[in-house]
From TrEMBL:
Catalysed reactions, as listed in the record: a 4-hydroxy-3-methoxy-5-(all-trans-polyprenyl)benzoate + H(+) = a 2-methoxy-6-(all-trans-polyprenyl)phenol + CO2
Molecular-function GO terms, alphabetical: 4-hydroxy-3-methoxy-5-polyprenylbenzoate decarboxylase activity; zinc ion binding
Cited Pfam families: Coq4 (PF05019)
Job of this protein: Lyase that catalyzes the C1-decarboxylation of 4-hydroxy-3-methoxy-5-(all-trans-polyprenyl)benzoic acid into 2-methoxy-6-(all-trans-polyprenyl)phenol during ubiquinone biosynthesis.
Family, similarity comment: Belongs to the COQ4 family.
Major site of localization recorded for this protein: mitochondrion
Membrane topology, from the record: Peripheral membrane protein
Co-factor requirement: Zn(2+)
Provenance organism: Aspergillus wentii DTO 134E9
Assigned keywords, A-Z: Lyase, Membrane, Metal-binding, Mitochondrion, Mitochondrion inner membrane, Ubiquinone biosynthesis, Zinc
Entry's localization field: Mitochondrion inner membrane
GO cellular component, one term: extrinsic component of mitochondrial inner membrane
Subunit structure: Component of a multi-subunit COQ enzyme complex, composed of at least COQ3, COQ4, COQ5, COQ6, COQ7 and COQ9.
Name this protein carries in UniProt: 4-hydroxy-3-methoxy-5-polyprenylbenzoate decarboxylase
Length: 286
């Protein structure tokens, strides 16, 4: 797939951040005291200054504490407009499956995807792989925050869909939830979705230990670049319809190279360190 395909297409509808609010015949500017009504349940309209403050505050907060999912979610919404979320929405509109997802608007929760059923699927199926990843990482599909700060109602769903599909990306790649794995996946997502938050999250590499940082830049970042540039738009995968599909077949269709198993790498390093300590202990005893 060309890097300049739908991912690089311009012409997304821009969001006018200074849209006036009409009251009767008069036109009054957007302000804190004159806020337009919400466009969907939970929507919080923001002006340019508020959105900028939210972006900066959530960026700093999520860097200090990468486990604050609410701050990461706010950062994603604050930086997705005026261009990037429209680009992702247009990528869905240009794809037959993406258009069906926008029409149907499915949600990914433990109610819509029953885990007992997923665990009963064939071992290498997409659904079984997803359920096994959730079990291994101790993650629930019900922990995703609802979108609040994106003004366009359809684009708000696009962001919600991306957010709820994130764990499927984890499952297909096998990357774990600790910081090193999240950074690798965020690098992949940035090149696949071009959502700024996924790129900004990479600054969290400063929190990695030296060995982890070296491993990230030598192994997982090159993988993310290769797969992120080569893969098709992940937002257009209708996960609910391919739960029984072989996950290796899906990776091949999407152009995703499976990265080295990060948990296995860390396990081997721990074993090696343990053997080295035992060797030194035995030498000292002699």
């Amino acid at each position: 797939m060309s890097v300049l395909g739908s991912r690089g297409a311009l012409g997304a509808r821009a969001l006018n951040l200074s849209t006036p609010v009409r009251t009767g015949c008069a036109v009054r500017a957007f302000s804190v005291l004159n806020r337009p009504p919400p466009k969907y349940p939970g929507h919080v309209p923001l002006n340019f200054v508020e959105r900028s403050a939210l972006a900066v505050g959530s960026a700093v907060g999520s860097l200090l504490n990468p486990r604050r999912g609410d701050l990461i979610a706010a950062l994603g919404e604050a930086t997705a407009t005026p261009y990037f979320i429209y680009r992702l929405r247009n990528a869905m509109l240009s794809d037959p499956t993406g258009r069906r997802i926008l029409r149907d608007r499915p949600r990914i929760t433990s109610e819509t995807l029953r885990l007992p059923y997923l665990r009963s699927l064939p071992e290498n199926s997409v659904g079984r792989t997803y359920a096994a990843w959730l079990d291994r990482e101790g993650v629930s599909p019900d922990t995703r925050d609802n979108v609040q700060y994106i003004d366009d109602e359809e684009c708000a769903y696009v962001m919600q869909r991306y957010r709820e599909c994130h764990d499927f990306y984890h499952a297909v790649t096998g990357l774990p939830v600790f910081v090193e794995g999240e950074l690798a996946l965020k690098a992949f997502e940035f090149l696949n979705t071009v959502i700024p938050m996924t790129g900004l999250s990479l600054f969290a590499f400063v929190r990695l230990k030296p060995a982890e940082r070296e491993r990230f830049f030598s192994i997982h970042l090159p993988w993310a670049v290769r797969s992120g540039l080569a893969s098709k738009e992940m937002i257009n995968v209708y996960w609910e319809e391919i739960l029984e599909k072989d996950v290796d077949e899906l990776r091949e269709e999407m152009g995703i190279e499976r990265p080295p198993d990060l948990r296995e790498i860390r396990k081997m390093i721990r074993q090696q360190q343990k053997r080295e300590k035992e060797r030194l202990k035995q030498q000292n005893a002699e």
